[in-house]
Write the structure tokens for this entry.
Amino acid sequence: MIISKEPTLTDAQLAEVESIVGEFDCKIQVIYGAHRNIYAIIGDERSETMVNRLLGLEYIDRVDRMESIYKLMDIRSDLSHHRIRIAGVELGTEPFFIAGQCTIDPERREAFFETAEGVKEAGAQVLRGGVWKPRTSPHSFQGTAKSLEILLEARDRTGLPVIAEVMDEAQLRIALEARVDMLQIGTRNALNYPLLACMGAATAEQGIPVLLKRSRHMGPVDEFISAAEYLAANGNPNILFCPRGTMPELDGFRNHPDESITPLLKEKSWAPVVVDPSHAVGRSRYVPAAALAAFCYGADGVIVETHVDPISGIGDDPKQSVTPAVLKKLIQDARAVWNLRTVREET
Ligand code: PEP
Ligand code: MN
């Protein structure tokens, strides 16, 4: 749909527009209005080059595409019936909880094992544990592959599947070799298209679920869904969208909480939404309310940083991890919200 700056295009301008779209096998259908005309593009209007060439014309104001720019992640795509199962749970059928430490402290293995037991006892389905950490300062603890062994041992002890973030191809290979059950793309790499493409291809065969965080600098919802499209287009459609707060921060919170984009994602895409309230608000005391808000907005699950003794933790744990006891209560409350939601949806 082309909107011109003036109410109508001149004959010469229309001819130029028709010639450009013609190069992309499209045509123009003029819709005559009382005060202005609109120029509909008929055909596959997804070409970015075509749109950019039209936008480069000084007499064009806007080009709105009707067709989705993402093919596989779109709610109307052939994948719309695709369902994702993790730890025996089909996403969307019950509240889904990923919980565990922000960071595994290699010097405190026992603390992680206790956290893992606590998370399991609380009722979470997947155990998280930060192995390599994306830290703003190069002087902060960066994580170590040694922590991967601790994560795997916690899996053996609890029987819970585990998730870890990887930031580059080398870490991806190590995590795959270790048979990590789920992978996380963090906020800093959410727009790292070569890494997304590489992960999509490397996980295609086994279909390892990927939790794709939203970039904190991410703009429109379409940009988030397009990032997921890189994974799907390279062979792995097992993607979970993870809103985790964006910039600029809301005064008092670590980021600007964005669980409210959940219904927008669900209108446009079929993929489950697992919100991260911990990084959104950044303080353990606000986490339960933010997590429940996510469920109210229709989220399928949440990922909650949890530590058996947050004060003694490293990374984000001292400030934003809840204890297993708080997690347990949160899971119960989430079930109540879930049931309320189901009743509302049915009426
Ligand atoms: C994390 O999960 O600990 C993390 C670093 O997340 P994010 O990429 O959202 O900051
Ligand atoms: Mn963290």
